[in-house]
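Structure (tokenized):
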């Protein structure tokens, strides 16, 4: 697997507080990768390290074969849309495009202007007068017209209404298909990730707890319901992600590549949100366990 991003033992510390620690992962190329996790898991820190806006305290990170922000050539390879889709309030849409052209050697002015025209945005309008959805689309336009190899988006639709989110994500997918981008999209909206992503990374407590192609992840997770029993009674190849019990019944979410033959179990297929929430809901004490990514490798 060719990786657009590799991190090993990556960490970022602010004083005594670790915003990210011991993070090891690979992001495959040619994919739309969803990055999801609870607040404080280190998602934004990881993405800011990937674009060179932060320097690691420990470990290493490599993006497209080089060190983040290591010179103009490396900077040109990566597009970044930060949280709140930042734009310059006092600049017009036209001035944003002119600034993009000055700062980016591979700038595709035709693509930028075609997108603005398609969106129906007046180029003379100042960014502060745009709607939230229009500002997000302007930020996406700047990221795409840069013609990067990797586009990184840090919760770009978190503040948008459902219609604006859908339009933004649809435009993103059209851009991916047209320009063959690799994308890393951070979001806490699992339904959005399911709509556009084909690879998922779940980050909990700054550690990768789950990573893989969506189809494979869904195929290897199962919900088992049956007579009450302790999880230690399950086969060793069934990794228990979550468990709940009543007086007579147990329900487990397990990950396994092997068939489940025990006739006592009623076997169901969880959806992506079920799987993600199970990993996000793991207790802090569980973080000392080896991540599932490693257990099942």
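Design, position by position:
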């Amino acid at each position: 697997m060719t990786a657009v991003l590799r991190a090993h033992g990556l960490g970022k510390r602010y004083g005594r507080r670790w915003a990210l620690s011991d993070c090891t992962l690979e992001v495959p190329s040619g994919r739309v990768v969803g990055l999801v996790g609870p607040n404080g898991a280190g998602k934004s820190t990881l993405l800011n390290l990937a674009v060179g806006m932060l320097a690691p305290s420990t470990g290493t990170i490599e993006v497209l074969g080089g060190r983040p922000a290591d010179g103009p050539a490396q900077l040109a390879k990566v597009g970044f849309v930060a949280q709140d889709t930042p734009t310059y309030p006092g600049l017009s849409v036209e001035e944003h495009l002119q600034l993009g052209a000055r700062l980016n050697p591979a700038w595709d002015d035709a693509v930028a202007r075609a997108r603005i025209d398609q969106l129906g945005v007046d180029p003379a309008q100042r960014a502060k007068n745009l709607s939230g959805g229009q500002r997000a689309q302007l930020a996406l336009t700047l990221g795409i017209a840069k013609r990067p190899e990797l586009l990184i988006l840090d919760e770009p639709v978190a503040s948008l209404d459902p219609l604006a989110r859908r339009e933004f994500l649809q435009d993103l997918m059209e851009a991916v298909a047209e320009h063959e981008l690799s994308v890393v999209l951070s979001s806490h909206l699992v339904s959005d990730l399911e709509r556009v992503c084909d690879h998922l990374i779940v980050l909990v407590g700054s550690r990768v707890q789950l990573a893989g192609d969506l189809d494979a992840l869904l195929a290897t997770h199962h919900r088992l319901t049956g007579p009450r029993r302790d999880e230690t009674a399950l086969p060793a190849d069934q990794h228990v992600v979550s468990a709940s019990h009543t007086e007579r019944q147990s329900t487990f979410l397990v990950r396994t590549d092997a068939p489940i033959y025990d006739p006592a179990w009623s076997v169901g297929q969880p959806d992506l949100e079920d799987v993600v929430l199970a990993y996000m809901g793991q207790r802090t004490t569980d973080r000392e366990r080896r991540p599932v990514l490693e257990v099942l490798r």
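Reviewer-requested clarification: DSSP finds ten helices and 13 strands in the chain. The longest strand covers residues 3-14.
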